[in-house]
Amino acid sequence: MLHGKTIVLGITGGIAAYKAAALCSKLTQAGATVHVIMTKGATQFISELTLQTLSRQPVYTDTFDERDPSVVSHIHLADSADLFLIAPATANIIAKMAYGLADDMLSTSLLATTAPIMVAPAMNVHMYAHPAVQQNMNTLRERGVFMVEPGEGLLACGYVGKGRLAEPEYIVEQVERFFADGSRGDRLSNVVGALQEQQKPLTGRAVIVTAGGTVERIDPVRYITNDSSGKMGFAVAAAARDMGATVTLIAGQTQVEPPEGVHLVRVESTQDMYDAVLELFPTADVVVKAAAVADYKPVIRAEQKMKKTADRLMLELERNPDILATLGKQKQQQVLIGFAAETNDVERYAMDKLRRKNCDLIVANDVSRDDAGFRTDNNEVQIYDRNGLVESIALTSKSAIAHRIMELAIERIVQEVQAVE
Ligand code: CTP
Predict the structure, then answer these.
(1) Per-residue pLDDT tens digits for 290-304
(2) How far apart, in whole angstroms, are the C-alpha atoms of residue 93 and residue 137?
(3) Is the Cβ atom of 297 under 6 angstroms away from ligand 1?
């Protein structure tokens, strides 16, 4: 599947560097021409000869080791790439990429390339969770860099947690998907291009985004909620902010740091979210309802911690208000965007929600998959409007999807304005 593709594989200095050998071999077997760049750290873990033998190409480690006088190696490599893949990527290379440092062959080539970039991080669980690393990764995502999330499990350092390099087979699958979806490269570069040109099409516009899961209390220490991490809603808020909007982010329970530069309103229950959204709705231009809203709440909320009594306990629940449906009824100039998380019959349920709740767009995803949806950094979505499918976006970062959602919202604002004129 990778015939005719040139992949520059950057290997950095972590114990997972040994897995890069299998990765290089699989990419080559799939037909790709693989040029390997190793950092000095990587050569401590795995030999250049191994990668040279597997790729059947010279391996680069030193910016100044110019073997062919007719070209400048780092520029030549950067220009030749259809894809730049960094696996494993340490916290250090991620930080260098975020800040644009160029102090070795790999970081210099990365600055020189205009090819799409895919990064597979691998590091200790605490390093991965560190706000600096997360912030740097977000910066990269916002630039359209595709992240292949690390797995969870026993790490070489002895810790158990998130930080293990994704398996080489999985990374190859992501690379193949990337090339299979020909349009995505163009789309990503469009978004990146718009950002680089500092176009701020949402300047002067008010955008409300809801994110995370709402929480319905049973008693002071127990509650009902759901698996939403807030990542998708946060990515949408960040995208709207980058496009110049004044963003109010109304967030329930979340598992990641909210973006900077937005007005954050924390809420707990569906009713709280309803009140906060409805108050701001009249002056909003765009509302994106990415929150996973609890449909039911306990009829009685105990004031004190409930004590166990009988063998069975019945918890009676009653319906919460439907925020999106209420907005749909009150809608005037606002572009209203809902989400539909489904485990089956995605299109049918999504179109049904769009009509019932009077949305302009609905973003649907299949939450039965492991590699997309709740808690992951990536998602695969279909976006519908009243006339049916608008766009199907193959597995990519939530940040890239968020930018696309906001671009579609902008198109609809423009249509509104033209209709009024
Ligand atoms: N939503 C809402 N208020 C609710 C329930 C859902 O605003 N009480 C919004 C969500 O934020 C999302 C969209 O409606 O944008 C669809 O949510 P989802 O949970 O998928 O749908 P439901 O309306 O709950 O339908 P069902 O339970 O039948 O799947």
Answers:
(1) 999 999 999 999 999
(2) 11
(3) no
Could you confirm whether 359 is annotated as catalytic?
no
Architecture of the CATH domain 6-197: 3-Layer(aba) Sandwich (3.40)
Distance 271 CA to ligand 1 centre (A): 14
Ligand 1 within 6 A of CB of 291: yes
Indicate where the chain has its CATH 3.40.50.10300 domain(s).
206-301+310-420
List all residues 6 or more positions away from 193 whose beta carbon is below 8 Å from its beta carbon: none
Of residues 75, 132, 154, 157, which has the active-site annotation? 157
Residue nearest to ligand 1 atom 21, measured at CA: 340
Amino acid of residue 72:
V
Residue 181 in contact with ligand 1 by CB distance below 6 A = no
- For ligand 1, atom 16, which residue shows the shortest CA distance? 340
Is the Cβ–Cβ distance between 349 and 368 less than 8 Å? no
Integer Cα distance of 176 and 186 in angstroms: 16
Statement: the pTM of the whole predicted model exceeds 0.90: no
Question: Which residue, among 111, 32, 112, has the nearest Cα to 71 in the 3D structure?
Answer: 112
CB contact set of 8 (below 8 Å; sequence gap of 6+): 34, 35, 36, 37, 77, 78, 80, 81, 83, 84, 85, 109, 113, 115
- Whether residue 391 is predicted with pLDDT greater than 70 in this model: the reply is yes
What distance in Å separates the CA atoms of residue 300 and residue 315, rounded to the nearest whole number? 9
Q: Distance (Å, rounded) from C-alpha 194 to C-alpha 400?
A: 13
Ligand 1 atom 14 nearest Cα: 324
What would the pLDDT profile of 354-363 be if each residue is shown by its tens digit? 999 999 999 9
The alpha helices in 281-386, defined as continuous H runs, are 323-330, 346-356
Give pLDDT tens digits for 158-182: 777 778 999 999 899 889 878 876 5
Q: Assign a CATH topology to domain 206-301+310-420.
A: Rossmann fold (3.40.50)
